[in-house]
Amino acid sequence: MAQYSIGFIGAGNMATSLVGGMIAKGIRPARIWMSDLDGERLAGLRQQHRVHVSTDNADIASQCDVLVMAVKPQVMEDVCRALAPQLAGREVLVISIAAGVTVANLQAWLGPHPVVRAMPNTPALVQAGATGLYAVDSVSAAQREQAVQILGSVGLTFWFEQESALDAVTAVSGSGPAYFFLLMEAMIDAGTELGLDRATAQQLVLQTAWGAAQLAITSPNSPDVLRQQVTSPGGTTAAALDVFEQRGLRDTVNAALSAARDRSEALAK
Length: 269
Prior knowledge:
- It contains twelve helices and eight strands.
- By secondary structure, it is of the alpha/beta class.
- The chain has an eight-stranded mixed beta sheet, with helices on both faces.
- Its main location: cytoplasm.
């Protein structure tokens, strides 16, 4: 693929993780630009990653072939409208990682540029993310590859043909880490109730969660098969799982993810 320059509007945690992942995958820092209002943060990023930095969004936009919009949703319109004159008449791929900001919004504010909307999740901060991607028809195959190169630097990427699918992605993987954190909290609390000291309970729960995820990722078997393999009839695991089933864990999870999907749809409107 031809060389291209990448600009980040906003240098928060997700943008910084993407930059770190891209550099680790071989993208030269000289191709990366970052802007932010925090000059001290930018100075640290320049020292750490050797990327170009600026407090002027327009300066970044004028330099780059790909523009990653990494600002908070509530300021996205103002930021985009201010950048529109810098992008006019140019072929710039716009990638947005802001939740709830639609392609229609972005093109109304920036102009009719090729847009990819991305829904990453926080494990991207440790290069273990999952990102849903949607592209408008004007995004070329080469630009799709650019989007995957950028978002795929911090984990797995998945393309969807309908933008509305990103609401389901938000419910499953975007918000998903919080569900697992809640389960971890509950298991740690239960462990202390059973007599373990809190530090030990936390280590046991976190290691078990990590190990279960690694086993599920590397095993050829699906999670339901893995569950059956560790559940002996009449045993301790079966006793715990029976309680989960009797108290409607599956229905609760389904209702929770539906609520997250519905909220994502509402925010987009």
